[in-house]
Structure formats: structure tokens, C-alpha cells
Design a protein that fits this description.
By secondary structure, the protein is α+β, with helices and mostly antiparallel strands. The protein is built from 9 helices and 5 strands. The strands form 2 sheets. The chain has a 3-stranded antiparallel β-sheet with strand order 1-3-2, sandwiched between helices. The chain has a two-stranded antiparallel ribbon with strand order 4-5. A hairpin with a 3-residue loop joins strand 4 and strand 5. Helix 1 packs across helix 8.
């Protein structure tokens, strides 16, 4: 799978403006080609209000954890009082911009032994689901889709369907010859 295909498969709802952010892992076959494509897409997306960042790179496997987000939308998500309070309780220091908070998340990904499950807030998962996942150690959930649901099951299922429809549409447009610039609303 190419970098572009992986990005479309995992980030279509963010490209289409339906979701504030998406996360995916990619292991390039050719590091130099990946670096060129990453930098080109990063620049192309910036003109559309999208930010593409590497949150973590693994020297052992050569894979990267990539995060695509809409800066304005992520600022709104992270600015919600409930989210700010939750992240502060998790040890995050106050931030002015989403990038400041993302740097703290990236440091946690690299330095902590356990995966920082609060990452769900950065992906716009409902806070009750993020909290439920952490408190229940990923058990006793109501249903699972893109995330494990502990709160409003019907709302989550509707979001899962909406994100799947969006991904299917973007993948079909890509196969029909649309470029990433056309998919990035």
C-alpha cells in the first residue's frame, strides 16, 4: 500500500471535513520516497487548513505514527472545558495552541511505557468513551467500532456508519482518478 492509499484509507473523514483528526501507522518501503511524499503532502494540506505530523517514529520497525488534523477543529475540541480538565488531570500542562498539546502527546508516546489512551480525545472520541476505556481497562464496553463505546451507543454507531460511508466514497474517488487535493475539502 502506498503512503497516499494508507492516508485515504485511514483519514478520509478528516480529509472530507467530517472529523477533526485521524491517526494511522505507516511503514514505508522506501524511506527517502516517503520523506519526499510526506513533505509535499504536508505543504499541500497546509493550504487547506490541514496539518500532517509525525507523532512517533520507530527505529526498530521503521514505521511512523502519523496524525492528520484540521487545526481550527482540533483547537475547538481541545478547548472544550471537559477535555482541558481531563487532559490536565492526565498530566498535561496548559497549552495555547493545538500544536503545544500535540507535542505533549508525542512526548508521552515516545517516553511512557504504556500507550497514552487519552489520545482518543485528540481523535474526537466522546470523553465518556475515552474515560470508560481507561477506567475499565478496555473491558465491559457496550460495542466496538473505530473505538470502544461506553457512553451513547446509538450515536457512536451512527458516527461509525458516517465515517465508513465517507471512507468508501473517498476510496472510490481515488480509484476513479481524483487526487488528494480534490479529496481534501
Amino acid at each position: 500500500m502506498t503512503f497516499e492509499e494508507a492516508l485515504i484509507e485511514h483519514c478520509s473523514p478528516t480529509l472530507a471535513g467530517v472529523k477533526p483528526a485521524s491517526l494511522f501507522r505507516f511503514c514505508p518501503r522506501d524511506s527517502a520516497l516517503f520523506a519526499r511524499r510526506f513533505l509535499a503532502l504536508r505543504q499541500q494540506f497546509a493550504a487547506r487548513g490541514l496539518r500532517l505530523v509525525i507523532l512517533k517514529g520507530c527505529r526498530r520497525t521503521g514505521s511512523y505514527l502519523l496524525y492528520l488534523y484540521r487545526e481550527r477543529d482540533l483547537a475547538e475540541v481541545l478547548g472544550r472545558r471537559e477535555h482541558r480538565d481531563f487532559l490536565r488531570a492526565m498530566g498535561y500542562t496548559p497549552w495555547e495552541a493545538p500544536g503545544d498539546c500535540l507535542r505533549q502527546l508525542a512526548a508521552r508516546l515516545c517516553l511512557e511505557e504504556e500507550f497514552p489512551h487519552e489520545i482518543g480525545l485528540f481523535l474526537s472520541y466522546p470523553p465518556e468513551d475515552v474515560r470508560g476505556f481507561i477506567e475499565n481497562k478496555a473491558c465491559r464496553f457496550k460495542c466496538a467500532g473505530l473505538w470502544k463505546v461506553y457512553g451513547d451507543e446509538e450515536r457512536a454507531k451512527e458516527l461509525f456508519r458516517q465515517y465508513k460511508r465517507c471512507t468508501d466514497r473517498c476510496c472510490a474517488l481515488w480509484r476513479a482518478g481524483s487526487g488528494l487535493a480534490q479529496l481534501a475539502v
